[in-house]
Structures are given as C-alpha cells and as structure tokens.
C-alpha cells in the first residue's frame, strides 16, 4: 500500500498511466467488454472487485485529461454507424468520484468505433463491473507548464 494513493491504482495501472504520453488513450472497460481480444499493445490491466466508476474516479485523481471535446468518450449500444449516437453529454463530476470538478464532458462512440479505438489504445483496464455499456476512453493531457505566467 502507498500513502495517499487509492489502492485501486495497482502497480501495473500506475506504471501504465505514468508511461503514457500526451495524447495517448486508455480504455476503462466493464466486465462484459472483450478486453483480452481488443488489447493489442499489452495484456489488459485487471482491476478485480471494482466497478468502472470507482476505477475512473481513482484514475482521475492522478491522470491529467486532455482539454477539449472528445477527451472522455463512452460506448453506446448502437453498432451501426449509420444510426447516430446521442450527442455529447455532460456528467456531474461527483459521478466519477471527483468533487473538485463540476462537470465532465463525455462524447459518445458507437460500439464499432469504440472497439476500433480500443484496439489502438495504450492500455485497456478491465474491471468486474457487470453493467452493460459502462466503458470509457480517456485521452491523456499534459500537466500545466510551471513556467507559464
């Protein structure tokens, strides 16, 4: 155990988050997602006994998310790209365990597009969440420039 670090953030998960570069993406997947099949860069990082929202909350404590539209995306049930997914949504940040933020902008992806993006992601984090369509993609941002005024 580490002091001040959420125990959901395992050593493998912390290493992946730290090793990611600006613009890299990480998938946080529910237990129904084909994490092993879609993971091309490395085996999935398993976080047992935690649901997707708990894992997202823990990651958001240490992970700089890219600014702008589409930095957080979620899967929607539709598989046919011809059927438009719902528009971008705003979710209250406490939903993700972040009381210091008011809102998190999330953009939808069809199942097909989500799986394609997952195959290119830096890492896939597999949870044991039994809910359907509780999968997210986060794009890593940069820390603020300490020399900027």
Task: Explain what the structure shows.
The protein has one domain (21-139): RbsD-like domain (RbsD-like fold, 3-Layer(aba) Sandwich), CATH 3.40.1650.10. The protein contains four helices and seven strands. It has helices spanning 11-19, 35-38, 52-62, 111-120, and strands at residues 25-29, 45-47, 72-75, 89-92, 103-109, 123-127, 136-139. 29% of the residues are buried.
Strand content: 15-25%
Order of helices and strands: HEHEHEEEHEE
Q: What is the helix fraction of residues, given as a range?
A: 10-25%
The CATH topology name reads RbsD-like fold
Could you say which overall geometry the principal axes of the C-alpha atoms support?
globular
Backbone CA Rg: 15 Å
Number of alpha- plus pi-helical segments: 4
Largest sheet descriptor: 7 strands, mixed
Distance, first to last CA: 37 Å
What's the mean pLDDT score? 82
Domain tally: 1
Provide a quick synopsis of the model.
The protein has 4 helices and 7 strands, in the order H-E-H-E-H-E-E-E-H-E-E.
């Amino acid at each position: 155990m580490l002091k001040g670090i959420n125990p959901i953030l395992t050593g493998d998960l912390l290493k992946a988050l730290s090793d990611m570069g600006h613009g890299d993406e990480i998938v946080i997947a529910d237990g129904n997602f084909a994490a092993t099949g879609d993971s091309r860069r490395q085996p999935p990082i398993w976080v047992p006994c935690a649901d997707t929202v708990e894992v997202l909350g823990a990651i958001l404590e240490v992970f700089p998310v890219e600014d702008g539209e589409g930095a957080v995306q979620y899967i929607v049930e539709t598989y046919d790209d011809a059927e438009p997914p719902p528009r971008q949504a705003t979710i209250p940040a406490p939903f993700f365990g972040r009381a210091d933020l008011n809102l998190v902008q999330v953009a939808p992806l069809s199942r097909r597009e989500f799986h394609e993006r997952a195959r290119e992601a830096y890492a896939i984090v597999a949870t044991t969440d039994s809910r359907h369509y509780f999968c997210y993609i986060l794009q890593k941002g940069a820390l603020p420039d300490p020399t900027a005024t």
